[in-house]
Queue: 4 jobs
Job 1
Amino acid sequence: REAAIRTLGLRHFDVQMIGGMVLHQGRISEMKTGEGKTLVASLPLYLNALEGKGAHLVTVNDFLSKRDAVWNGPVYDILGLTVGSIHGQSAESGNFGNSYIYDPDYVAENPNGWHKLRPVTRQEAYACDITYGTNHEFGFDYLRDNMAFRKEELVQRELNYAIVDEVDSILVDEARTPLIISGPGNRSSDMYYKMDKVVRRLTKERDFTVDEKAKTAMLTEEGTHKVEEITGCGNLSDTENLETNQYVNAALKAHAVFKRDIDYVVKDGQVTIVDEFTGRLMFGRRWSDGLHQAVEAKEGCQVEEENQTLSTITYQNYFRLYKKLGGM
């Protein structure tokens, strides 16, 4: 409180002190707009950063992660702590995006830039006592670290303490939103067309069963034999037929479970998913595990190259990894 008075000319109100205590206990503090979340967060961030294991403030956008780091920077600086800020990637910034440290003596060359934010490596920004950044950036850095081959490539330290701003939005509304890093797959588009023709020759109930609720379809014993006969692949359960099995299952699901103009629409040769809750078209979103390609083959569209998931985590599971978590 004293440091805030000396640097910012602001004195934490008693209710703001209580808000800080609640966040320190790993609970959620609800504050209305204008009640000073930015100032409140400085209390538990400082206290938990004293362990030397790092404290993160998770904001909802890049602007806030810059603004809050600069705004609270003088408070932490006078108390002898370092402050980092991580931002989204840009074409010029290379693999790990823009990262900065609050430096009271630094003046940015770019007049539109953030004065006092000195560019550093991602590792340096995470090595600071306190680091500001978005949920998106923290999550993707975690995934990239999991894919690193050498220890020197890791950017994050252990996940010690975090305060999540707009916690209701991130941990309720977006809780199960997956963060996904994907790479090009190596499946053949021809196989999707071939399996589409095979599945068209199957009969419901006799060759396959459908569970509408679980949105799954399964071959019966008779259906399995029929597929083996048409494709000439031998035993469909053999390990060498694992990929063939995946093509068959995707084609079967595309035909038996997913319905045109209900689950998806076809326009200009493109298959677009329909959100089952809102009914809105989800442009740019694609089903995984070959399902989107199977639907494209079913509708006679161009089968687009498949991406395979290399690393994924939901926001909910990522934030569970922190030793202690508070929210505002």
Note: Residues 4 and 61 are 24 Å apart (CA to CA).
Job 2
Amino acid sequence: MAFLHPYFTIITIALIAFSFREVYGGDYKNYKGVWVVVIAMIFFIGARDWVGVDYGAYVDIFYYWGAKLEYSDVLDKMLMRKSNLDIEWFYIVIGDIFHDFFLPFQYFTLFLAIFSLGLKYISFEQSSVYPALSMLLYMFPSYFTGDGGQMRQGFAMGILMFSFVFIKQRKLLLFLLMVFLAIGFHKSSAIFILAYWFAVIPFTRNQLLALVLICVILSPFKIYNHISILESLAPVEIYSGFTDFAEIEGGSATAIKFPDLMCVLYMFLIYTYDKEACQRIPYYEYLRNISVAGICIYFIFRGSPIFSSRLTYIYLIFTTMAIPNILAALDMDRRRILHFAVIIFVVFYYFVYASMQAPRAGYSIERYNNYFL
């Protein structure tokens, strides 16, 4: 039986313990002690040393563009004009500042982790009744494959999750500003613009189920092959961190994959407890709609590892807030049963990741290194 490095095992256990306090406490209290765990998550992922599937590629980008960056190219890239810069402008500007001050790459990754994970947990505190449980659900696998792997999209998702507050407040300009900044880290963030309007559509649970079933039916037809604009949203230069699981599974396009089961589970929970959650949790409908959009995107692009990962996670990450809010809407008996099931799922995913992905990504006991330890 494989285990993650003890740092991450302890973090997992701590988040599980906090989730029990949240769910069984009965007062919906957000425990500030969770921030200690979040700070540990920031440090151990941000100060990692040659850990992560894409780490080497990001080191090369850091030193290559740090030595030759022209800010006229940055301006052109920011204004979406033709530019010599072949990577997102906001990410490269921040990296260039660290490079110009002769700071090592690990300081740059630590800075990214502070803001990326900080924004995510702030978003959980704002929109999830159980933020520690949300952080636990986020951890597997997005914490490792995003913040600890494909850092640009990991940071962009932090900004997009934070933008949810402006969806709730219906502040379009501030929402668009957040999306613009997220695009500055990863251009696939542009697809999230639609969430501002999709979130407020008054779907019934049967209509949402019908949408998902339509997308499942369309899945074998690979309609994304006929939409050329998608190539610009999901470039192929660095994406292995988000496709590890698909690569490991292998098999045919028609074989059942682990993400298939996850999406079915999420849709089952959303459909079954829709009425209670909508009645008792403010803005739950917005989270539900965005989450279901992620499920639909996954099945539409299921045959493409890059599209089904990059474009899906931008929306599907909101299940980390929707699922805990479903728990909070239930009576205590059902809440405890469902919470226990979620914990079992997380523990299962822990061992799946530890055995299948962590050794290659560098989060195993044997391979993990930290710059400051």
Note: The two ends are 26 Å apart (CA to CA).
Job 3
Amino acid sequence: MGNGKSIEDLELLAIRIRKHILRMYLNDQSLHLGSSLSSVEILTTVVFKYLRRTGDPINRDWLILSKGHAAPALYAALAEAGLIPLEELEKIHSINSILQGHPEISIPGVDMSTGSLGQGLSFGVGVATAIKIHGGSGRVYVIMGDGEQDEGEVWEAMTHAAARKLDNLVVVVDNNGFQLDGFIDDIKPKHYLPHVWRAVGWKVHICDGHSIASIDRSISDAINSKAPTIIFAKTVRGKGVVEIENTKSQKPGVEVVKRALINA
């Protein structure tokens, strides 16, 4: 993990991770497929190029999947990193599996149990603050959904992080344009959110969330920033399953997913 792999290596890893997610869905159609697929390249880049997992809690990096319903993508990445057995993926949600619908800290590589949206950033701010207080070198990466921006707790954490100048905190928003209540632009238009974060003191980047090179450039800049950084990564919900891309559909038929798996 975090071993500085090349862009080409990361792209191949992303393909494998996407295939793992599709196979998991074939075994359990209750999974949040669209949201998991949109976050693949984000998680691939963070986990396999930047995340440093060795050392004590203040000198290693932390990864918080605040949008916990995208757990299949995280599990697939952790399996590729060798932290959980690959065969465990196909048992997701089974009574004899360690993998549940949302991340649990009992799973190797999971730093925070998540699922209730909006809490991940607050936790991340707390960890980043503790690292600063103790003079550690660790960084905190928080992966959020764009729908989470509705949560008041997010706005409180956002301002607190800026006030404490937490330059060891990097947030990546999976900006796929959808949330439970509908289209993001109908509820909280995404075009003004970057201006809000910038206004309170964050460094703001906007990138292509399916281009590992684009994500890489943004994260590289973020870790050299003197302020907390947020990256709005534009993504496609359901990326890789053409029939559900950029739609509200979360439950494509098994045959549709099998075709996507062949073409992945």
Note: The beta strands are 62-65, 140-145, 169-175, 178-179, 182-183, 203-208, 229-234.
Job 4
Amino acid sequence: MKGIPVYHDINDLHLLTGSSLRTKNPLFHCFNMKEANDLKTTHTAPHRANFYTLALNLGTEKLTYTLNENTFHEPNHFILCVAPGQVVKWKKQGDWFGYCTFFKSEWLLFKEQLNFLQQYPFFQINETNLIQTDRSSLQQFETLFELILSEQESEDTFGEEVIRSYFQAILWKVRRIYETTHSNNPSHKAASTITAQFLYLVNQLFLNKTTVEAYANLLNITPNHLSQTVKAVTGKTARQFIQDRRADEAKYLLAFTNHTVAEIAYQLSFSQPTHFSKFFKQAAHKTPIAYRTQATSYLR
């Protein structure tokens, strides 16, 4: 077992799945999932992409879907939100039903990744979002996806602008559902902005920056102010977020690669493997080896 591969090109991910689908647009591709029913593969190995996935699943047959360390057996009627860097694998024994979109945030004209995450928080890398939808919402989503596919096929003037508008409508509808099922309510805009900036930086820099002080310096605020703000908005301390992100990455590497415990320890900036083992046992309540044994057996 090698390291977890990262796919940078949308067509490379199509190639991985065995699909004959291809796109000329390197930033956006929407398709009806029945178009991928010609693929011969029934499963994928663990992988990551550096772009987003938003899919509407309408009952794919005998599907098992793993996102990060969470596995879902035959999930039905849901919106799937996958962020760049999250670990994905799936297997199925029947046909696909639904719609899928691969896209990069710059296609939506965001200059900064952070601004995109502030607007669409259900794509945070530390969350696993399979969002259940009711029948009314499903019909609305289906209509919007069909409008996108129609525009995509026609290649009419201003087609990309029209597609972008339909897709943003989908994202706002997903956010509406997301906010009804998440209890985190930012106390005010400034606190929400600081927290979003912090979470974005942690996801980018956790391998090398492991203290609250390091992130406070980047945000030009005091460590105490950062900790209080993050706690008020999320209910978790800034230190917890840093530790959780490192622990999550350790879990992915233990479950999906053959890297040794020592290699993982150094990759996560621990000075000694013993320090990593102690950290991991506190976070996961089991040793790295015990976690790997359990995870590989469960995910097999």
Note: The mean pLDDT is 88.
